[in-house]
Each structure stands twice: as structure tokens, then as C-alpha cells.
Amino acid sequence: MSSTESAPKRRRRGWVAVPVALVVLAGAVVTVVLVERGPSKPTVPAALVPLIRAAAKTCPAVSPSLIAGQLYTESRFNAKAVSSAGAQGIAQFTPETWSEFGVDGNGDGVKDVFEPADAIPAQARYDCYLARQTATVPGDATRNMLAAYNAGPGAVAKHQGVPPYQETQGYVTKVERYAADFRYLDAAPSGTSSP
């Protein structure tokens, strides 16, 4: 390897100590074996849970798990994220979309794309708008809404469903996978009853 080449990146492995009992003729011996564990599932930061649950009440097209799945796919819950394309905040709004759909969710008089209390309800509001825009498109309504969030409602209408764009198809699949990890958010919080 030349000095200009960088060393290959190695994946960090998580290891768990697992006690294993070995029986020997003279008696029992206990030894510890290290076993590699699989990747852990993502978790929603506790401070975001009430914001996500409140935003999920915006319309029937969204649920807490779906909103969390989108946020994780968009920014890994990073409120200060900025993409190379200029998308901003936890929900990765473009400036144009934010100017139309941004909200002052925390009531401080400012619509701040980098403030989760503003961006999360704005994401739900935009999702609900996209669900209405794609309501007559054949196929799964949730997948169409997600595809519209990524590629725009015009692309979903033109292709009569999730467009054949690799990025958009990958986006929809990732959101669905992470939403499944976050299904626990859909249960009523303890101390409350579900409607």
C-alpha cells in the first residue's frame, strides 16, 4: 500500500461475553466465550418521543413509527444535519419546501428548520399534504406518500406509484424497515388510553 492510499476501514464489532459450562471428568469448569452480536436496532431519543407522538395526530396517513422511521432515514435524528444538496434539519427540508410547510411548533415566534419542535410537526404536515396529493395513485398509499417525500408528488403521479428511481425505492424501503423498529411508539404512552 502506498503512502497516498488510506487503510481500509474496519467495521467495529460488538462483542458479548457468554458464559459456557464445560463438564470435565474431575468437575465442572466455567469459561467465557466471546460471541459477536448483531447490529443493535436504532432507538428514538427520549426528548423526541412526545414531539413525534403529537405530530402523528396531524392526519391518519402518519403514525409515530412512520414519522420516526423517516426522521431516522433522513438524518439519524440529527437536528443540525445539512445534506450536500442543501436539505436541512432533522427532517431534511429543502429551503423551498420549508418556506411553504414550516411551522412554529414550539410557539417561540420563529419557524426554525433546525429546531425539532418545529421540524417534526412540519414533517407530519408535509406528509399529510403528500398523502392527499397521491391519494388517487394506484398502489400502497403509504409507500406512495414516502416516495413523494423523496421524489416529489409529480414523479409518483407520473409513474403511477413509487418511481423506478433507485434512490427513491431505497428510501421507501429504509423508512419502512426503521418504522418497523419503532412500532413500540404506536402504543399509547403509559398512563393514557388509546382512542
Structural notes for this entry:
A two-stranded antiparallel sheet has the order 1-2. About 35% of the residues are buried. The N and C termini lie far apart (about 65 Å). It contains seven helices and two strands; from the N terminus they run E-E-H-H-H-H-H-H-H. Helix 1 crosses helix 2 (about 65-75), helix 1 (about 50-55) packs parallel to helix 4 and helix 2 (about 65-75) packs across helix 7 (about 165-180). The radius of gyration is 22 Å and the shape is globular. About 40% of the residues lie in helices and about 10% in strands. It has helices spanning about 50-55, 65-75, 95-100, 115-135, 140-150, 155-160, 165-180; strands spanning about 15-25, 25-35. Mean pLDDT is about 85; it is low at about 1-25. The chain has about 200 residues and is of the alpha+beta class. It has one domain (about 45-185): Orthogonal Bundle (Lysozyme), CATH 1.10.530.10.
Keywords:
195 residues; alpha+beta; Lysozyme; 7 helices; 2 strands; disordered N terminus
Question: What is shown here, in short?
Answer:
It is built from 7 helices and 2 strands. The protein has 195 residues and is an alpha+beta fold.
Question: Topology of this protein?
Answer:
Blueprint: E1 14-24, E2 27-37, H1 49-55, H2 64-75, H3 95-101, H4 116-133, H5 141-151, H6 153-159, H7 166-181
Antiparallel strand pairs: 1-2
Helix pairs in contact: 1-2, 1-4, 2-7, 4-5, 5-6, 5-7
